[in-house]
Amino acid sequence: MATSTTRVVRGSGVLVAIMAMAMAVATATMMTNKDTAAAWSLAVDFHALSCPDLHGMVHSAVAAARGQDVQVTAGLLRIFFHDCFPQGCDASILLDGWNSEKKMIQNEGLQQRALDLIESIRDTVHKRCGATVSCADILALATGYAVTLAGGPWISMPLGRRDSLEPAPFWAVNNSLPRPDADVNTLIDRFRSKGLGDHADLVALSGAHTVGKARCKNFRDRISRPNDDFTWRLAGFCGNDGNRQQNLDVITPDTFDNRYFVDLRNRQGVLTTDQGLANDGRTSWLVNGFADNQAWFFGQFAQSMVKLSQMRGAGGGEIRGNCFRRNAGGINLRQTQTDAAAAGDDEATTLAASA
Ligand code: HEM
């Protein structure tokens, strides 16, 4: 069900319409999000003065990337979820290095094209505006536009995040992201521990699997004991190739719509975690409701994504001059936009250390 914090835009990729709606809902969104976002001062119009073209730059970059490969929507969504859950939405997942989150098993298969897109947008944005916008904000905004461009709802993303100084530690990743063979109790517990205790958040956010693919090794448990036509077909498709990729939504794999929930109702969910949502009384009524009513799913998804996006980073932070690296030589660097613009430089050298 759509709330006052969100507006549903079906199918339209027209930037003007999106921007008009963004402005129209911005005030309501900020008021509703105030309590949770206040802790780190997020606001929909955070960059309105310092980088007025931000939305246009992000929108056109994501649209161009989708023109090359529509899968980038799925790539961004998964990266965003895997960034936010372990220690908040702070772009920690983008950091390279020996302790990079990208090397952890939970993050195997993240789309390199989508990771590169974030850094490429950062470069464009910093050249235009100076180092004012964090990689974390660019990831949040790009993910929102990617959903809308794939046919999904408009998501009014609050902004103002800082980038982490370190990757999330292994234990945080391991204790946060559920395994694809987890039961519904585990899913509910993991989401509740992140402040997403409303089952509607879990079910709606799982609806991100309306786009994208899973490798056969991630649903091995289902196909090792096939027990109906669908699981026999999955088993036949995978054979012995654990890396073969299967669409998560078997009806409309590249469109952001509610058909994933129709899949689940038809017992054609690919992951154990997905199908489990349709088999448990605490969540099945939501699966059925979203399958019957796309507007309800869209409204709930947009609202739950805003909640997810407000998960706080570890504290401190910086505006990275390269999304894959922490800035050289400093903690809590603060950007001086005037210096950056004057120097025409988007790198960390344009940042000044704050107290
Ligand atoms: C509820 C718990 C969840 C589990 C257990 C889970 C697990 C998985 C697994 C195993 C894959 C396949 C990865 C691969 O084989 O490469 C996958 C893909 C994906 N996940 Fe999830 N996921 C969950 C929730 C979410 C959420 C909340 C989102 C976003 C809001 C999300 C977005 C995606 C997307 C879009 C893909 C496709 C990625 C691509 O094609 O590149 N997932 N997920």
Give your account of this protein's structure.
It is built from 15 helices and 4 strands. By secondary structure, it is mainly alpha-helical. The chain folds into 2 domains: 15-175 and 309-353, Peroxidase, domain 1 (Orthogonal Bundle); 184-308, Peroxidase, domain 2 (Orthogonal Bundle). The protein has a two-stranded antiparallel sheet. Strands 3-4 form a two-stranded antiparallel ribbon. Helix 3 crosses helix 4 (112-129), helix 3 crosses helix 6 and helix 4 crosses helix 5. The longest helix has 24 residues, at 15-38. Residues 1-39 and 331-355 have low confidence and may be disordered. Protoporphyrin IX containing FE (HEM) binds next to helix 3, helix 8 and strand 1. InterPro entries: Haem_peroxidase, Haem_peroxidase_sf, Peroxidase_pln, Peroxidases_AS, Peroxidases_heam-ligand_BS, Secretory_peroxidase. Its cofactor is heme b; Ca(2+). Heme b binds at residue 209. It holds the Pfam family peroxidase.
Give a brief outline of the structure.
The protein is mainly alpha-helical. The protein has 15 helices and 4 strands.
Question: What characteristics describe this protein?
Answer:
mainly alpha; Peroxidase, domain 2; 2 domains; two-stranded antiparallel ribbon; disordered C terminus; binds protoporphyrin IX containing FE
